[in-house]
Write a structure and sequence with these properties.
alpha+beta; 3-stranded antiparallel β-sheet; two-stranded parallel sheet; 5 strands
């Protein structure tokens, strides 16, 4: 804690020490963070977006993203990366949402999908393009908000801006 000098106000001084963070901030290999999980259409426009803690795996966050969809109906097929390779997730999406999940297998796992379906995985760069567009908004690159209620609002505002730009 810094002492207040004469002629200097207390503006922007930390009056008490506290641990940085907030809700939905989880530990990662590089410190603490928040994940933005999104579902994009074939033209990289956002269909659903969610903000979660960085500690759980992506395959555990899919249902929360589907609940935050901008559309009335959900897509028939989702393409994910190797983090979404889970038999439990495949069965749950097929049974509850009637969605087919296409994800390449991890190295130490047996093949569960044929090669024809994995051709769609080549187009997964479209989701990465959505995240590149979202990182043009400086407020999303670094989460400045302490309260979690504010950050999803800025993420949805960025998605709205991306959608309006492509109309």
């Amino acid at each position: 804690m810094r002492p207040v000098e004469l002629g200097r106000g207390v503006r922007r001084c930390n009056l008490r020490e506290r641990q940085k963070g907030g809700f939905a901030v989880g530990p990662t290999r590089r410190g603490k963070g928040t994940k933005i999980v999104a579902i994009a259409a074939t033209n990289s426009l956002p269909l659903a977006v969610s903000v979660q803690s960085a500690s759980p795996a992506e395959c555990q966050l899919v249902e929360e993203v589907l609940a935050g969809s901008f559309l009335d109906e959900l897509p028939a097929c989702l393409v994910g990366d190797k983090a979404y390779d889970s038999d439990v997730l495949d069965q749950k999406l097929a049974a509850e949402y009637d969605i087919e999940l296409i994800a390449p297998n991890r190295q130490r796992r047996s093949k569960t999908q044929d090669g024809r379906k994995l051709r769609r995985y080549r187009r997964c760069w479209r989701v990465e393009r959505l995240f590149a567009w979202m990182h043009h908004f400086r407020r999303l690159v670094t989460r400045w908000e302490y309260h979690i209620e504010n950050f999803p609002g800025f993420v949805q505002l960025a998605c709205l801006h991306i959608l309006l730009r492509h109309l």
